[in-house]
Amino acid sequence: MKVFLLWHVGHQNEAGADGATVHVDGEVVYVDEQDGDDVKLLGVYSTLSKAEERMRRARLLPGFRAEPDCFIVDHHELDQDEWAEGFVRETEEGQRAPSTVAALP
User: Fold this and answer.
1) What are residue 77's DSSP bridge partners?
2) Rounded to whole angstroms, how far apart are CA atoms 27 and 83?
3) Which of 6, 14, 47, 97 would disulfide-bridge 19, Cβ 3.0–4.6 Å?
4) What is the pLDDT of residues 43-102, one digit of tens each?
5) What is the reported pTM?
């Protein structure tokens, strides 16, 4: 079964020229949480039309209406792994930080 996730990005980044905030990069909503962008999950919906209807309602609300083009709808299959690989943390200096979590069996 496919589900649709609706996200909104409240932008605070300074990724543009002279530290300006970037909202959309080409046709894609720009997201940089490390630079201050605030990503909110508004809901998980059974159809794209239900996610789009929620987006229309959210655009009327404070905060969301200030950035009406900063919504993202993506879809996922239920019971499917989305992050199949591990990850490493990097320090601010770009070095890999030592892992502090033991692997699960």
Assistant:
1) 2
2) 25
3) 14
4) 999 999 999 999 999 999 999 999 999 999 999 999 999 888 888 877 777 666 555 544
5) 0.77
